[in-house]
Amino acid sequence: MCEEHQAGVGRRAVFLTGAAAAVTLGSVSFASAAEGRSRTRTVRGTLEPGAPDFVYVPVEVPHGVREIRVAYTYDRPQVPAGTAGNALDIGVFDERGTGLGGEGFRGWSGGARTEFFLRADEATPGYLPGPVRAGTWHIALGPYTVAPQGLSYEITVTLTFGEQSRTPRPVYPPERAKGRGRDWYRGDCHLHSWHSDGRRTPEEIAALARAAGLDFVNSSDHNTHSAHAHWAEAAGDDLLVLLGEEVTTRNGHVVALGTDPGTFVDWRYRARDNRFGRFARQIRRAGGLVVPAHPHAACIGCNWKFGFGEADAVEVWNGPWTPDDEVALADWDGTLVASVRDGRDWIPAMGSSDAHRDPDTVGLPQTVVLADDLSRRAVLDGIRAGRCYVAESAAVSLALSASGPRGEHAGIGERLRVADDSPVTVRVEVTGAPGCTVRLVTDQGVLHTSAPLPASGEGAVEWRTTPAYAAYVRAEVRHAAVAGPLPGSLAAFTNPVFLGRR
Predict the structure, then answer these.
(1) Backbone angles phi, psi at 285, to 5 degrees
(2) d(CA 494, CA 475)
(3) Where are the beta strands (DSSP E) in 236-379?
(4) In the chain, where the domains are located
(5) Element containing residue 42 per DSSP (H, E)
(6) Which residues are 352's β-sheet partners?
(7) What's the CATH number for 171-394?
(8) Overall CATH class of domain 396-502
(9) pLDDT tens string for the chain (502 positions)?
(10) DSSP annotation of 374
(11) CA-based angle 191:196:198, to the nearest 5?
(12) CATH code of the domain occupying 2-161
């Protein structure tokens, strides 16, 4: 074993690379070895406060390597209350380079693992199996937060020499499951497996999804698509598995929803780099939807700062209902008002569990989509059109419609095209929400609140208005309030029905 020390990152950085702030350090070299033999190198270094977003450690891989194995550690000194401690993510790029959006990506585990390996036939979850070719590989370090004392790290790289195995051809889940024709289908589009920082296998997630009454799920591991080839056995006639990624940048997270199998979306940029539009377009070219996730979450780097100009939908409700979801709901409602004012397209809302591990509940909440079939294309079309509502479980069902004086009718995500002075009847039907109240929300705010629903949890509410008075109407089903004037948590909410001809 050989040891090398790397200079601290700061003025001693070698050069800048990529879109986000990044540096590349001096390379780690290996001599060749006989088949079956291993060579190990250990490097140490220190990252100072204010370190760049990404630090690349080049590794010179000679010919004849069959496996690369990397382990790392870093110190975690005590810090004052309110000060971020050390957190260091890790991943790897192969000899094709670290270029933004390039082909060199071979895996990312963030801070979920302390070691990983890659070889032709197998790799640690989060990483992609494939040939280990000679050339300059790069270990990617992502200093998520750095303590005032700095972050000291140690990386151990082991190369094992020998003949490489054959790389298996990936098998992906089918894009259609056995549906019920045009119907309401329930799904959870933001889930994490052990291919990122989750603790569940795809098979375990699928079992929980079925138990929660879901018809579809979306694979959305952080910054890697390695899980895509591991969902085929978990899918079936009763469960549609969409493929995607949670693109976890330093300025917010976005779910790439329902992309083509094997699609990798880069995350190494900030809002100020003006790169997000490029990757949003990549998601759409791959057949997917761009969905900003938990836009008002309080965790470092989670708050959405890219704007919503590229969004196809927005994740308003993330996991159990919390104050940041309430803010996200109000913020989204503001975008509806803006769309009416400016005469532009509106952004549908959805909700997902963001479940990682026990006790996280798969399907809390779930997006319920009116789709022509249980297929990738039909489900995405329904979400894109806003023909969906969000519910806390499969026990809750919600219907919203508006009708005009001559039999005109519109449902969730649609427009009732009647004159501004036409009388409009809005009707809401609810099941599975005992004790909850129904609120009707318009561009003026909450204009109607029902009495609590009976113990059966079923009820219907009717309200009359005109397009001149309400440009849109959407429904919320709320639990009883527990803290003064604050509204109770959501049991369900809908996308709007727009009123009027424009």
Answers:
(1) -60, -30
(2) 5
(3) 240-243, 245-249, 252-257, 289-293, 314-318, 349-352, 366-371
(4) 2-161, 171-394, 396-502
(5) strand 38-47
(6) 318
(7) 3.20.20.140
(8) mainly beta
(9) 555 555 444 323 333 334 577 888 888 999 888 888 999 999 999 999 999 999 999 999 999 999 999 999 999 999 999 999 999 999 999 999 999 998 999 999 999 999 999 999 999 999 999 999 999 999 999 999 999 999 999 999 999 999 999 999 999 999 999 999 999 999 999 999 999 999 999 999 999 999 999 999 999 999 999 999 999 999 999 999 999 999 999 999 999 999 999 999 999 999 999 999 999 999 999 999 999 999 999 999 999 999 999 999 999 999 999 999 999 999 999 999 999 999 999 999 999 999 999 999 999 999 999 999 999 999 999 999 999 999 999 999 999 999 999 999 999 999 999 999 999 999 999 999 999 999 999 999 999 999 999 999 999 999 999 999 999 999 999 999 987 778 999 999 999 999 998 8
(10) S
(11) 55
(12) 2.60.120
Contact 248, 212 (CB under 8 A): no
DSSP per-residue letters across 97-138: ---TT-TTEEEEEETS-SEEEEESS-B-TTB------SEEEE
pTM over 0.90: yes
For residue 166, what are its two tokens?
């054959």
Place of tokens 């990483």: 127
Token pair, residue 379, equals 């489900």
